[in-house]
Amino acid sequence: MAELKRTPLYPEYEKNGAKTVDFGGWEMPVQYTGIIKEHEATRTAAGLFDVSHMGEILVEGQESEAFLQKLLTNDLSRLSPNRAQYTMMCYPDGGTVDDLIVYQLAEYRYLLVVNAANKEKDYQWLKEHQHGEVSISDVSDQYVQLAVQGPKAEAILQKLTTTDLSAIRFFRFEMNVSFTGINESAMVARTGYTGEDGFEIYIEPEAGIQLWRSLLANGASDGLQPVGLGARDTLRFEANLALYGQELSSEITPIEAGLGFAVKTDKQEEFIGKDVLKQQKESGPPRKLVGLEMMDKGIPRTGYKVFAGEEEIGFITTGTQSPTLKRNVGLGLIKTAHAVVGEEVTVQVRKRLLKAKIVPTPFYKRS
């Protein structure tokens, strides 16, 4: 069995009482004090996440924008330096290679932040389609990525820097942000994966360890807690943020997953998968991702089948008892004809068919 990869912050996990698991080939913390506690801390105060397992791919060169416009579903012409964009790479049949964030660092210079388990696949996909004056480099080892998320995230991070963080708007970022007592500067973006306000910080590995410690020390009085993958999943699920391998995959298109806002089929460039995605946008996809709330007692887990009467109409992509709402809810990919809010369906929980109803998403939206 292959040895699990570890982020530079791995030694800090044990100090904070983490329980680790295999996550896509990485030994990562699933929880520290407990998933529910960490979830609530992020919703009410702030959570600190090590997301250094994510992949970073640098694409640069005179033809980098033209190249990426043919690979990505969103419209890069809407970007300028210090702006970021959520986007997808797709196969010719519309299935998803990966979902990612692209940061425009400078003219002709882009940083693609991709899912950890997909990094090698994504890098190969980009290299396979490489043409013109474009350079593609895997720079993942150059970064530790920390996320500070929650209503107190800005106040906590502001203690450590003279950069005015309130000036960094959503999906914008600043380069060369300095932190007290840390020699290396960082890239700080107002992005995240929790449904809360917050920041993602990209910094050189050794400095990342120092910043992790400094944040925990300075944020403790404001309720900052280290948070593992368990609560990261429940937080993103409540906010209806897609997880690759569940809400998105090579078999699921961004339109089916409700992510049409990041698929610009009206852009001039012929990107991979455009024809299928355009047709689905205009005529409607065969399946839709919907929210489900259980009426009977039971939790709709990933992979459980969904029925309308005796007809199997789809499956659960993610489901749990929502820590915020205290209700058993799930996301299901079902036939479009049945994707109507208020409609009753059944979910096969082990050998029982339990009643559920289709409800609006996201389940949670910060006030």
Describe this structure in words.
By secondary structure, this protein is an alpha+beta fold. The chain has three domains: 10-49 and 143-238, 2-Layer Sandwich (Gyrase A, domain 2); 55-140, Alpha-Beta Plaits, CATH 3.30.70; 286-367, Beta Barrel (Elongation Factor Tu (Ef-tu), domain 3). The chain has eight helices and 19 strands. It has a six-stranded mixed beta sheet, sandwiched between helices. Helix 2 (35-44) packs across helix 7. The chain is globular, with a radius of gyration of 21 Å. The mean pLDDT is 98.
Keywords:
367 residues; alpha+beta; Gyrase A, domain 2; Alpha-Beta Plaits; Elongation Factor Tu (Ef-tu), domain 3; 6-stranded mixed sheet; 6-stranded antiparallel beta barrel; 8 helices; 19 strands; 33% strand; globular
Topology:
Layout (H helix, E strand, L loop, with lengths): L9 H6 L3 E5 L2 E6 L3 H10 L1 E5 L4 E6 L3 H8 L11 E8 L5 E11 L2 E6 L4 H10 L6 E4 L5 E6 L3 H6 L14 E5 L8 E4 L8 E6 L1 H15 L4 E3 L2 H10 L35 H10 L3 E8 L10 E4 L2 E11 L6 E8 L8 E6 L2 E8 L8
Parallel strand pairs: 3-13
Antiparallel strand pairs: 1-2, 3-9, 4-7, 4-8, 5-6, 6-7, 9-12, 10-11, 11-12, 14-17, 14-19, 15-16, 15-18, 16-17, 18-19
Helix pairs in contact: 2-7
General form: globular
N-to-C SSE string, H for helix and E for strand? HEEHEEHEEEHEEHEEEHEHHEEEEEE
- Provide the CATH superfamily of the largest domain: Probable tRNA modification gtpase trme, domain 1
Number of domains: 3
